Amino acid sequence: MVLDHDLIPDLTPTLERLVERHLVTTKEWFPHELVPWERADASTASREWDETRAPVPDAVRSALFVNLLTEDNLPYYFQTIDAMFGAEGIWGEWSRRWTAEEGRHSIVIRDYLTVTGMVDPAALERARMHQVSHGVVPQPETPLDGLVYVALQELATRIAHRATGKLLDDRAGYDIMARVGADENLHHLLYRDLVSAAIERDPSTAMLAIERQVKGFEMPGTGIVDFEQHALAIAKAGIYDLKVHHEQILLPVVLRQWDVEGLEGLTPEAEDSRVRLITRIDRVGRAGRRLADRWAEASSGVPSSGDAVSARDLISA
Ligand SMILES: [Fe+2]
Ligand SMILES: [Fe+2]
């Protein structure tokens, strides 16, 4: 693959504009003001934990666990972004600002989980040690692939946080996940619009990168202990599954916002890539609806058709 050395300088004026928009739109907030400290008691500091302390459905516990560990893996996201886009000028300024905002997410979610006892704090800490010691994060093959990936990933994270908050049945938890989700949304909008500028600059190269990233997309959290088992629980609860991925990411972003069907002047290679991409998006939509129906039937007591579904099918579009 030929590396596009002009991509970063060409997109610099757009990023400058988008960072300015971000700073005007974003709101300052404080984790300590959202955490329900009054729920902490003697058991908060104990090594012993049992799930009756704060009963929540297993899928919600899985989602909280995965959401937080994803945020904890920040050093490696920063490392990848820093290497891809460089530390100079607005690119470095943005990645450092983004890192500071993301750090706030793990602070608030961890404090919330600690005082409420929703997740076993010792298991969580061991999983954090494992996750950060191994540092598994996606490594997009080009900077443009990286921009497409983060645009999709920030939106996936927003969706997962907000859906988790809704299922918590707890006002403080809902507010925290909504607050974090609002940040993820602004991150998504910045990267989404940066990709739009890249499409305008060179639609054929952008098409190939979008196809690669849609094909290889994995829900944030890959590398976490028992990730597939948690991802399956999260999908079955409808927090984040193929249907959500299709309806809330692929349709609104890839088809509508980036308008891959309407792009003109593509090279023959990019035309082929577009056909494959649209076929894939269609297929993901059909598979997502089928799976969601099957799980709804299973949870309402109607026997399901019984064919095995691997977690990989759910998270890998
Ligand atoms: Fe975050
Ligand atoms: Fe984010």
Count the strands? 0
N-end to C-end Cα span: 23 Å
Q: What's the pLDDT, averaged over the residues? A: 91
Q: Main beta sheet, described?
A: none
Number of helical stretches of at least 4 residues: 13
Q: Quick one: overall form?
A: globular
Q: What are the bound molecules?
A: fe (ii) ion
Helix/strand structural class: mainly alpha
Beta strand %: under 5%
Describe the structure.
This protein has helices at residues 7-25, 31-34, 58-72, 74-85, 89-116, 121-134, 143-167, 171-201, 203-216, 227-236, 242-257, 268-299, 311-315. By secondary structure, it is mainly alpha-helical. The chain is globular and about 65 Å long. It is built from 13 helices and no strands. One fe (ii) ion (FE2) is lined by residues 102, 154, 157, 184, 187. One fe (ii) ion (FE2) is lined by residues 71, 102, 105, 157, 184.
